[in-house]
Amino acid sequence: MTMHEPSLPKEWELVVGLEVHVELATKTKLFCGCENKFSHIPNTLICPTCVGLPGSLPVMNEKAVEFAMRLGRALGCEIHPSVMARKNYFYPDMAKDFQTTQYDQPTNADGQLALADGTVVGIERAHIEEDAGKTTHVGGGGRINDATYSLVDYNRAGVPLVEIVSRPDIRTVEHAKAYVSELRDILLAIEVSDAKMEEGSMRVDANVSVRPTGSDELRTRCELKNINSVRSLGRAIEYEARRHVDLYTNGEAPRQETRHWDEEGGRSTAGRSKEDADDYRYFQEPDLVPLAPTSEQIAEIDASMPVLPAARRARLGERSSVADEVIVTVVERGQDGLALGAIEAGADADKVLTRIQNDLAVDDWSAVTSESLAMLIQMETGGELTATQAKQVLGEMAAGEHGGDPKAIAAAHGFEAMESDELETLVDQLIVDHPDEWSRFVGGDDGDRKKMQGFFTGQIMKATKGQADGRAVAQLLGQKSAG
Amino acid sequence: MSALDLASAVRSGERSAVDVIDEHLARIEARDSEINAFNLVTADAAREAAAAVDAAVAAGKDPGPLAGVPIAIKDNMCTTGVATTCSSKILEGWEPPYDATVVQRVAAAGAVMVGKTNLDEFAMGSSTENSAFGPTKNPLDTSRVPGGSSGGSAAAVAADFASLSLGSDTGGSIRQPAAFCGLVGMKPTYGAVSRYGLIAFGSSLDQIGPFSKTVAESAALLEAIGGHDPLDSTSIDQPAFDLTSVLDRGVEGMRIGILRELSGGEGGVEGVSADVIARTNEAAAALEKAGAIVVEVSVPSATLGLSAYYLVAPAEASSNLSRFDGVRYGLRVDASTTGEMMTATRTAGFGPEVKRRIMLGTYALSAGYYDAFYGKALKVRTMMLQEFASVYAEVDLLLTPTAPTTAFQLGDRTANPMTMYVNDVCTIPSNLIGHPAISVPFGVGDDGLPVGVQLLGPALSEPTIYQAATALEAAASGEGSLS
Predict the structure, then answer these.
(1) Would residue B203 count as lying in a domain?
(2) Do B319 and B385 share a domain, yes or no?
(3) Contact A53 B195 (CB under 8 A)
(4) Which tens digit of pLDDT belongs to each residue from A213-267?
(5) Residue B230 belongs to a domain
(6) Which segments of B243-310 are extended strands (E)?
(7) Which residues on A lie below 8 Å from B78 (Cβ)?
(8) What ipTM was assigned to the predicted interfaces of this complex?
(9) Selected catalytic residue, list B16, B87, B131, B149
(10) How far is CA A375 from CA A276, A342, A365, A371, A410, in A?
């Protein structure tokens, strides 16, 4: 099939809201003492309550409520007195044939999520609910209506979830992807979920519609399900938006419905229409008491809140002048503490950050300390190490060589930057050997000058096998051309 | 011999628990084919448990306050490895893997379960005629119903099949059969007795309570089953009541209100028969004679209870009974798809009254009808709570008839559900507001069958209620008011 165009025609605007289900990393399930973990052996993590046996009753997991409130506060939500509700529908993996969730009185409401580029997406609510079990339909078409038989595993039944519902504030695919990344970073930072999309502990549904650019109407939306990665989210939204534009362009209109994203086929297919949707007959769960967190509890949560990714980025931004992407990467990798420490210890901030971004993309960097990193950067800026040498030394520091001591590593390699008079002799010789290039450096436009600076630096590095300090070379070239 | 005398004889070694149980099993054997109080008689397990009690006594261990007392358990309370049916085909043969908290507690107190008693299917009814296993008959007159829904538990005590029994009361299901069978029946404060393991009908209304021949036995059994249970979130966090020590404190100075709306007064509910009103007035006179101050009071919203109840209880039931879908336990009627299997199972498994209430409740919760029905019923509950609270500022307890009539003929009210529903008019308010109420026998009606009168009190007023009930019991058996 033909792939769709990557972006919408400019007369159309994308409108996206995201619903993200996050599994909370509590030790036990939401309403019983069963372990909350993954098991390959079906129906081994179950009890009368999570299988919904007659007479069983739920007891609220206080840790799950605390985690949910922590997430709410991290998203800037107000925490409200809340109640659990029953959402009634028949499905074999929903043990009680109703889901215990929150309806008109959710725990968290009215927050926002700031993306790395400063865009703010409103959060309508973040409510607590239980997960269902898992059904495998065997035979026939593999769907509930035509399977030969179905197998149900209730291990996941009753696992605590928070569903985070954004407002339809997202206007680009990039923002949708950034929203999910940012949310994942927050979840990891506050340690309430492992937030793995591929493993299902973070599940994203996208409500997609389009409208004429400049309009503020909200047109019919479709809810996309079965999105398993951030990349898949981008593709699904793009496809769906194009589909809507095509329909409108042909004088048709989309139907409000749930659609299934087919990652392999790169398209969405129609699911249940919202018109014939179930009436869930929500009502307050009589087996649970209302949740009424005290202001002390909320204050405690706020006090124990770690610095969130946005603030961590801002902290680095204030201290450096590197590009945003560098800071985003460093914070995403959780290396911002290391960087801050090195900067506090007196190392050049921009050098610290770019060095980390470029040369510390490893899983385990625990052998690198703020102090050793600061020392390395200072050796580099002081001319003791060239850029190339510094890169190599950092790699070995991360690997724990010589106790991670940059001086010891550099000494072991015999690294020492060239003396400047030695370098000057080399530069003079190069100018003589390459008169055309030199005149272009001296008299050319900015482009030429830049190009030729690269040429001369490259030649020097070649001649010195990388031992020369690139900055010293640039300085010498500048001096020579000026005078 | 009362349960308390039996227990003390067993505890002292004067009587063997096995003998006591055998004696009761023999009575069951002789007469239960006629009465049909039991869905299941657990003779072997009962003899084993009794032998264990005797062994404990012989070993000098404390066998518990109810040592060797035969007790019957309503068949909607879970018993490990013992079929628990709710008198429904849909659960026929299901053996729970766990005990209800009350079942554990009576066993811990030394009582011995002799069997599971018949009920209106899923506790929906007022005559025990809605059972999939045939009606229970009133031991005092086998042409009459024993009341319901806990008719089997009432009949078991009335026929001396057991000294004590447990029932559940959602709208009067303990108190009305107690009245019909000449017994004491208590519905405790909502949350005073754990519902864990009680198969839910109306979760916000259900409460387990005792049947007995005397007030003192009732108090002892409530002491044994009451108190906080962490497995029931609606369980009140306080220790079990101390009731037996306050029984004889009398009613001197106690303020008792005759609740006009439920006692045949003007503007009140219709259909309360003259003999029942007469007994209620005599009960009031007896209390006055014993030193109480009796006044007439009014709670206008009490007359709305029946309508509110028949929205709230079916609404909750429609959700609670969803889980009986053939997937995990009980009856399964196979069909070609999962959905058809669920429908076929529920069609074959539920009786007509259960289906009627599921439909009623589903309708009351439906989108577009919620506010007019379920929502309005919740408002009535709130209003009743306020009106009762203001009455309890003036009086300690209220007095009303328990049921509008004495036990009626089998088959008399099965044709028209409404004639059955009005039976609960006096008992329903206590369930809607979660307050305790007791039915105490007080004389007989024109047909010679027992009349019960009801004492109502505010939440956790059980000690006061038992005090007054003891006084009423004394008056009823004494020379005084019963001419």
Answers:
(1) yes
(2) no
(3) no
(4) 999 999 999 999 999 999 999 999 999 999 999 999 999 999 999 999 999 999 9
(5) no
(6) 255-259, 293-297
(7) 53-55
(8) 0.96
(9) B149
(10) 67, 8, 16, 6, 12
